TrEMBL record, chain B:
Belongs to the MnmG family. It is found in: Cytoplasm. NAD(+) binds at residues 272-286. This is tRNA uridine 5-carboxymethylaminomethyl modification enzyme MnmG. Keywords: Cytoplasm, FAD, Flavoprotein, NAD, tRNA processing. Homodimer. Heterotetramer of two MnmE and two MnmG subunits. Its cofactor is FAD. The keyword NAD applies. Residues 543-614 form the tRNA uridine 5-carboxymethylaminomethyl modification enzyme C-terminal subdomain domain.
Length: 465, 624
């Protein structure tokens, strides 16, 4: 792997992550002004490119594809060499929540010739362009090392996980394909099986679909644009909606005593001391004859599948019931916090049994109607998030934007490969795209050695004079 | 001590690497001595009688463009030519030729003998003489000394060579030659690190004992191609090869006797190439294959020896005889020379700079199989570069180092000196990341100018190159300037000539991008000038693959910036506090010349490169 070019345009969130009044995204490099212009509509309709340096311009950030307004923002243009990096810089100041910051950042990367900045890269450029002096250079190297070590830790945590195994499931068949094509190219007089391009196209299509599924549903893209998906599950009337309201400090869900009141699932965003949560209050899980309610129950099950974190709610005042057992079964092997509600009333729940069933899950006691235990629950969730069960810290965010960036590129290369095959472009050219896709996927898991291709050729094909 | 002579450059060995090194150094004007163990074996082909193929043919074309000899010699002496991969893209099409081995050798010998500034001597070099870490000369087994400033070691498989046939082994070079045993020790003494590799070759059989009616004929192409940009020949008499297959009977004999295979009984210690496995290895590694193809290739026009390609073996002779007889058409086979394996010492190429000079022994260059590669073409390419760079050193000029984006030769040498090799290294197109730019048809466009600069490209080659280049530009501009509009006349004209109608105006150059339209079709319809096929090929390829080519050019220009960041030779990696230990160790060992090269070292991460980049900037500001 080669270090990135020092002359392209980079972007990153410049303010600390978490809650804050405003957040800043910094973009530096030759394409910075032009790219920001594509997502920024100034209130006076003038392009940033036409403005003088060091002006602040008020306007809106708009997704050019959907025309959605993402946030209000102030853009500050600083033309090189009168900027921190001595390059053209645009700083986008918007509302400080994680959500708009991350959406704007991914938008920039998606539409422009821009990539995510590496750790310490703005400062590195400032140094390389002569903006800061030698003494500071040492600090830059320290930053690069420290941040790299940290993100390596995160990445290696990821490596053992299913994410990288998903990547391998795309990469391995791709490697086989590449090796097969390369074998026919480098050894045309040897007995290498003919390749059926139609089959290859189907196969590439399948791999592309896998990438798209990952892009759509994998933690990466979703946490980025939507926050940590947290599902609240529990049998009817256990207090799910009350917990949601408690977390949201509002009356979004209807709270009643009638079991099955919440028929549909409710989605809300909450900012839990800097952690963005997307909370889904699911309909109570139980058998039901009511058709509308049934849809809600099915949806709840599917949310359990998709959630990054599950808050499983049990009623401390009632003994274990069949519905509870069903829930325990549903959340098996998931990332769960057991929440026992109504701790202000007399308890008759067999907590030991739950503990046995869900060994490894944290347990929190709360009263959703009062504030009792909510702080403790917050601590448990935070601990979980930061302890790496649901890894989500600065390093992880970097990783995630990187991952989705790489996945998108890989997907594009695979589309190009299919297009080329469809147009009867010779195989050696198709391989250019297949190799690029394979390399981009390798970037994600930190593994791109072209020797692999050669090893694969020799292990699969009997070649030799 | 008797000083028998003094030279600028002494080349040790006159195989494919040695002759190129000797010719190059002499042609540039250095007083050069080419030494060989046997005057009759200059440019000998001890293995297959062929030159070229994918990536290897590319190497020959590149070497030719730079002013090397292999292409010219192959064109003069080969007896069959085939263009391979014609159904694939232009980047991987490659010429492969069958050589008349003896004619090839004698023709090359003649060229060397008549080269000004070049002496050829039959002698066995026993010692490399070094003074103050600088090459001083060589000592011959008979005691005399030749002094020199530079040596090119091109010792092939002769260094401590050991031949293995079944249970029998003996010291020796290929095909009954002597081995260079003392030289190996001398190299170690002066601090050269050696590895041990192995390779092998199949039996040669008597043509009169083969039944070709049971084999498929493999004729050459009717259309004649040349390796050299200087060759003009368009007709050649060609000799066919023959195709046959092994079968279950062959495999059973091999399996039943596998305990007698030297690779199984532990006689062979060296590492063999994966792409050139012996037949016994193939049968063990791919037990599901019920047959393996064999090409029966003539060794020349004036011999009955036939080469059994695909059947490399070091099994005992009785087994070789037994399994060869099971092959259709070979029932009555007589073996003229048995197959054998050979083990030999070679240098770990990580000790070399990209100029192919040793990092710590000044004036010591090395090329070919001595650097752990395999193949005549790989050897010749390195020989040429080593010869050029020895001459550049003597002239006090900058080394010729080709980039990965410029030539397969650049990929080959960069791989060797940056990554090293664990097995005899063979060039493959899949090793080149900018394959589409490194086509065999544009080797002259890529490299002739560089060959001219070092003084190897003569006036004839240079003026041919300039003429072709000018023609390509002239025709491109002409075609780009000629716009046609979707008028009724034009569309009638197109339809009449089986071309699709146009809907918008388009220039003739862009017309080439359309399916089934080539220059020749347009030439007729639109009255374009008549030009030769080579020029047409360049123009068509550039037009049709424009998109892909510019994709690759972008990749190159991105890489280039790091390639151009040079690392000073006196850098002390231990002093860079933030580099990881593994990176420091690797960088110290390999001593890359540029950040680009540093990035290709396994174990050096992008973060290490960032740190290096900043350190280098600090370094240069301090030294300003």
């Amino acid at each position: 792997m080669i270090a990135k070019d020092i002359n392209d345009t980079i972007a990153a969130i410049a303010t600390p992550l978490g809650e804050g009044g405003i957040g800043i995204i910094r973009v530096s490099g030759i394409n910075s002004i032009e790219t920001v212009d594509r997502i920024f509509a100034a209130i006076n309709k003038r392009a940033l490119a036409d403005r003088h340096s060091h002006r602040a311009v008020y306007g809106k950030i708009i997704d050019p594809k959907t025309k959605d307004i993402i946030d209000e923002a102030i853009c500050i243009i600083m033309r090189g060499p009168h900027s921190y990096t001595k390059e053209d810089i645009v700083e986008i100041q918007c509302h400080g929540g994680m959500l708009p910051l991350r959406r704007i950042l991914s938008l920039l990367i998606e539409i422009g010739e821009i990539r995510l900045a590496a750790p310490g890269e703005f400062t590195k450029r400032a140094f390389l362009n002569g903006r800061i002096d030698l003494a500071q250079a040492q600090a830059v190297m320290d930053i690069i090392k420290a941040k790299t070590d940290a993100s390596l830790k995160v990445a290696s945590g990821h490596l053992s996980g299913c994410f990288s195994s998903h990547i391998r499931q795309i990469r391995d068949p791709l490697l086989e394909m590449i090796a097969h094509y390369e074998a026919t190219i480098d050894f045309p007089e040897e007995e290498v099986d003919e390749i059926d391009n139609i089959q290859v196209m189907e196969k590439i299509g399948e791999l592309k679909d896998k990438i798209n599924v990952m892009l759509a549903s994998a933690n990466t893209g979703r946490i980025l644009s939507e926050g940590l998906v947290t599902a609240i599950v529990g049998k009817p009337n256990v207090g799910k909606s009350s917990l949601l309201n408690r977390l949201l400090h509002s009356e979004r869900a209807i709270v009643t005593d009638v079991p099955g009141t919440t028929r549909d699932s409710i989605e809300e965003y909450a900012d839990m001391e800097g952690i963005p949560l997307k909370i889904i209050d699911t309909a109570g899980i139980r058998h039901t004859e009511d058709k509308v309610e049934k849809i809600g129950v099915d949806r709840a099950r599917s949310y359990i599948e998709k959630a990054d974190l599950i808050l499983a709610l049990f009623d401390g005042t009632r003994p274990i019931e069949d519905d509870d057992r069903k829930i325990i079964k549903l959340i098996e092997e998931k990332n769960v916090v057991i929440v026992i509600n109504k701790n202000d009333l007399e308890q008759s729940l067999d907590e030991r049994w739950i503990r046995k069933q869900c060994s490894g899950s944290e347990i929190a006691h709360i009263s959703a109607v009062s504030d009792n235990g909510i702080k403790e629950l917050t601590e448990v969730i935070k601990k979980k998030v930061y302890a790496g069960n649901v890894v989500y810290n600065e390093g992880e965010l970097v990783n995630n934007v990187r991952q989705s960036e790489a996945l998108k590129k890989a997907e594009r290369h695979l589309s190009d490969a299919i297009k080329s095959l469809d147009n009867d472009i010779p195989e050696d050219l198709v391989v250019i795209d297949l190799r690029s896709a394979w390399e981009r996927l390798g970037d994600i898991i930190g593994d791109t050695a072209s020797e692999d291709i050669i090893d694969e050729i020799f292990s699969r094909f009997c070649i030799g004079k | 001590m008797f000083i028998a002579g003094d030279y600028d450059v002494i080349v040790v060995g006159a195989g494919h690497a040695g002759v190129e090194a000797g010719l190059a150094a002499a042609r540039i004007g250095c007083r050069t001595l080419l030494t060989t163990l046997n005057m009759d074996n200059i440019a000998m082909m001890p293995c297959n009688p062929s030159v070229g193929g994918p990536a290897k043919g590319h190497l020959v074309r590149e070497l030719d463009a730079l002013g090397g000899e292999m292409g010219v010699n192959a064109d003069k002496t080969c007896i069959q030519f085939r263009m391979l991969n014609t159904s694939k893209g232009p980047a991987v099409q490659a010429l492969r030729a069958q050589a008349d081995k003896k004619t090839y050798q004698f023709s090359m010998k003649e060229t060397c003998e008549n080269q000004d500034n070049l002496d050829i001597k039959q002698l066995l070099v026993e010692k490399i003489l070094v003074e103050n870490e600088k090459i001083a000369g060589v000592q011959i087994e008979t005691g005399e000394i030749y002094t020199c400033q530079c040596i090119v070691l091109a010792s092939g498989t002769y260094l401590r060579g050991r031949v293995i046939i079944g249970e029998k082994t003996y010291e020796g070079g290929p095909i009954g030659q002597r081995a260079a045993v003392a030289l190996s020790q001398s190299l170690q003494k002066i601090g050269v690190k050696l590895m041990r590799f192995k390779t092998g070759t199949p039996a040669r059989v008597d043509k009169r004992t083969l039944d070709f009616s049971k084999m498929q004929i493999q004729p050459g192409d009717s259309e004649v191609h040349n390796f050299s940009f200087l060759s003009n020949e368009h007709t050649r008499e060609q000799v066919p090869c023959w195709l046959t297959y092994t079968n279950e009977k062959t495999h059973k004999i091999l399996r039943d006797n596998i305990d007698r295979a030297p690779m199984a009984n532990g006689i062979i210690e060296g590492v063999g190439p994966r792409y050139c496995p012996s037949i016994e290895t193939k049968i063990i590694r791919f037990p599901d294959k019920d047959k393996h193809q064999l090409f029966i290739e003539p060794e020349g026009l004036h011999t009955n020896e036939m080469y059994v390609q695909g059947m490399s073996t070091s099994m005992p002779v009785d087994i070789q005889f037994e399994f060869l007889k099971t092959i259709p058409g070979m029932e009555n086979v007589k073996i003229m020379r048995p197959g054998y394996a050979i083990e030999y010492d070679c240098l770990d190429p990580l000790q070399l700079k990209p100029s192919l000079e040793h990092k710590y022994i000044e004036g010591f260059f090395s090329a070919g199989q001595a650097n752990g590669t395999s193949g005549y073409e790989e050897a010749a390419a390195q020989g040429l570069i080593a010869g050029i760079n020895a001459a550049m050193k003597i002239r006090g000029r900058e080394s010729l180092i080709l980039k990965r984006s410029e030539a397969y030769i650049g990929v080959l040498i960069d791989d060797l000196v940056t990554k090293g090799t664990q097995e005899p290294y063979r060039m493959m197109t899949s090793r080149a990341e900018y394959r589409l730019l490194l086509r065999q048809d544009n080797a002259d466009m890529r490299l002739t100018e560089k060959g001219r600069q070092v003084g190897l490209v003569n006036d004839e080659r240079y003026s041919r190159y300039l003429a072709k280049k000018d023609k390509i530009n002239e025709i491109k501009i002409l075609m780009q300037g000629k716009k046609i509009n979707p008028s009724r006349e034009i569309n009638d004209l197109l339809r009449k000539n089986d071309m699709e109608e146009i809907r918008a105006s388009i220039n003739l150059y862009d017309m080439l991008k359309r399916k089934n339209i080539g220059y020749k079709e347009l030439e007729e319809v639109f009255n374009l000038p008549h030009i030769n096929d080579e020029v047409i090929k360049q123009i068509e390829t550039d037009a049709v693959y424009e998109g892909y080519i510019s994709k690759q050019e972008e990749q190159v220009s991105r890489m280039e910036k790091l390639e151009n960041k040079k690392i000073p030779p006196d850098i002390d990696y231990m002093k860079i506090a933030n580099l990881r230990e593994e990176a420091v160790e690797k960088l110290n060992k390999i001593k890359p010349l540029s950040l680009g090269q540093a990035g290709r070292i396994s174990g050096v991460s992008p973060a290490d490169i960032s740190i290096l980049l900043i350190y280098l900037e600090q370094y240069s500001r301090r030294n300003d």
